[in-house]
Amino acid sequence: MLVKVLYFGRLKELCGFSEESVELRNGSRIEDLFAHCASSRPELGKFRPSLVAARNREFAAWDTALCSGDEVGFLPPVSGG
Amino acid sequence: MIAPHSQDRIELTHEIIPNAAIAHEVRADEDGAVATFDGCVRNHSHGRSTIYLEYEAYESMALSKMQEIAEHLHGNFAVNRVAIVHRLGRLEIGETSVFIAVSAAHRAAAFDACRYAIDNLKKTVPIWKKEFFADGAVWADGEIPPAPAAAETPASEPASN
């Protein structure tokens, strides 16, 4: 299945782009997606403790199961206002 | 999806926020109070002189979270209209980054709702600020939004009819 991944703030700078499409095995969870994304960018993995995930524009637990077509954002600590 | 209150104004913009116009437009004849919060760009941060800021957002989610805040105000405070407008892009010192206006029949509800809105926005709305100094730039520390610790148990739960 194919999911869309979005990066913001320092993660976007780290990756050098703001979105990518990732092909995952059916039944994958958000944590599997993150591990996949971080496997080619070890720096990304270091941010994991400070990140929250969003699935289809809602905050989501890391063990949330994904569906084809999902949009997943990895969100650094927010600093609006 | 919650139906938005039609007279609320929930917005992200790259333009200068028209604070006075927004404060005026939330006011109706039945209101006795308008509370506003004007968040503006400070010229210093952690002892360093700030030159300018840049804001970016996960726009679709940020609007949805701002809408949720407005709905919470309507459900929990005796307020009439709500405006929450956040600026994105490059902001200069003294410019407004976020403007919130809440109207109500009485001042306590307006103050309380306005305070709730800005406090909650800073914790839950996916917007990020980069601070530019003479000798470099940093992403502001920020707050980790509350997120579910574990996924909800899937379909094996009995359906509620």
Structure explained in plain terms:
The complex is a heterodimer of chains A (81) and B (161). Chain A starts with a strand and ends in a 6-residue tail after the last strand. By secondary structure, chain A is of the alpha+beta class. Chain A has a 5-stranded mixed sheet with strand order 2-1-5-3-4. Chain A is globular and about 35 Å long. With 161 residues, chain B is of the alpha+beta class. Chain B has a single domain, classed as Molybdopterin biosynthesis MoaE subunit (Aldehyde Oxidoreductase, domain 3), CATH 3.90.1170. Helix content of chain B is 27%, strand content 36%. Chain B is built from 3 helices and 9 strands; from the N terminus they run βαβββαβββαββ. Chain B is globular. The C terminus of chain B is likely disordered. At the A-B interface, β3 and β4 of A face β4, α2, α3 and β8 of B.
